[in-house]
Amino acid sequence: MPNGKLADISEYLQSHKSSFENDLCELLRIPSVSADSTHRGDIRRAAEWMADHFRRLDFETELIETSGCPLIYAAAPHVAGAPTALVYGHYDVQPPDPVDLWTSPPFEPTVRDGNVYARGATDDKGQMLTHVKSAQAWIETRGSLPINVKYIIEGEEEIGSVCLEEYLAENASRLACDCVVISDTSQFAPDQPAITYGLRGIAYYELSLVGPKRDLHSGSFGGAVTNPANALAGLLGEMIDEDGKIQLPGFYDDVVPLTTREREGFQALSFSDQRFLEMVGVAKTTGEAGFSSLERRWARPCLDVNGLCSGYQGEGAKTVLPAKASAKFSFRLVPDQKPENVSAGLKAFLEERCPPGITYELQEFHGSTGLLVPLDSPYVKAAARAIENGFDRSPVFIREGGSIPIVTEFADKLSNNILLLGWGQNDDNTHSPNEKFCLADYHRGIKSSAHLWAELAKLEG
Ligand code: BES
Ligand code: MN
Ligand code: MN
Prior knowledge:
Blueprint: H1 7-15, H2 17-28, H3 40-56, E1 60-64, E2 71-75, E3 84-90, E4 110-112, E5 115-117, H4 121-142, E6 148-154, H5 162-171, E7 179-182, E8 194-199, E9 201-210, E10 216-217, H6 218-221, H7 228-238, H8 260-268, H9 273-280, H10 293-298, E11 302-310, E12 320-321, E13 324-333, H11 339-353, E14 359-368, E15 371-372, H12 378-391, E16 396-399, H13 407-413, E17 418-422, E18 436-438, H14 439-457
Bound molecules: ligand BES and manganese (II) ion (MN) (2 copies).
């Protein structure tokens, strides 16, 4: 019986619920926004909070300085002959903007209807902490964990994980492991936990167009000079055709097609376009022709404009022909697309299509490849049993559309056994106002994690 096992640990978890919640709220009060340099002090406070937390468990702990935000490495006492799990998570959060749309302030965690509302609640402070609290439960009830658990917690996931990538390149042996455990994704639905076996990658750009040497009167000059804002709208529009196909040369060359088995698997999930449309508040699904919404979100590439800037933004009307226009946009990639090939295709596209009278500059931001994890590994089976114990439900197997840039590096350099065990929900408002995390999911996540250590101990080290 699931609940009969680990009775002493379950009891510890039960009696420490409010202490676990208080610890989470403490961390959520630190506005550790990585994108905004004015928050560098808060980043450090969050890193130190994490390090202190590991030190209190007597774990070997190091706060690692980088050229950006500090990393935290921690390791539980060594267990000879047992496998090693590496837990990865991030203590940085997205900016809280627009702040006036929050019901309660983003860095004053507030509990309503069983959810804690705060920036970082689900992404990723709450989810990451489940694997620390589960270790605490083992240490305080049994004196030790049944396997080797190491942690690498970073503060730059939301800006591309550059420093962790550098650290990993030089310290792979320190992070050596049999599997990587990450909780930074979602369940499939409320009460339907999931193991995620695929993520999309990303290629992010900013394109700036320059036309006339200064802003012009659009009456005097309009029609005779290329308007950079018109040109930008045109170029962005031409990047996708009416079938939702991206028009960069070679863009689909490396796309791994969906297998029939996978398409059937997606189809078998209880997903309704109608409920999805209600959740996002639009009237119709759109996207690449010939694919379902789940296929489009999880297993096909896409292009989204993330920000647009040009011309008059103030109140009322101003007749201006702006001298400049710029856009931030990103492609979500699927295996085996490579960001560098997308960049080459994008440059060729711009060379060919950029209209006369316009010069352009392309800035490349972060890039990462997509991930597909083999499902038939003993590690995935161990994780599924752990989730059954924590949620009283078997997990379904899903892919997700978001990106965790460092995971493919982990897969290449450390282990292909990447366990993406998401405790969040699709409506947790990640990156949006009123981000939340369901406290029951927090506790079920901790319980699943406590069982995961026991399940992994049954495998060979
Ligand atoms: N936790 C998310 C990744 C995620 C999002 C997984 C949605 C599953 C579903 C992560 O913190 C994130 O936001 N990643 C960024 C990466 C980017 C900044 C390089 C993303 O996907 O936009
Ligand atoms: Mn995250
Ligand atoms: Mn995020």
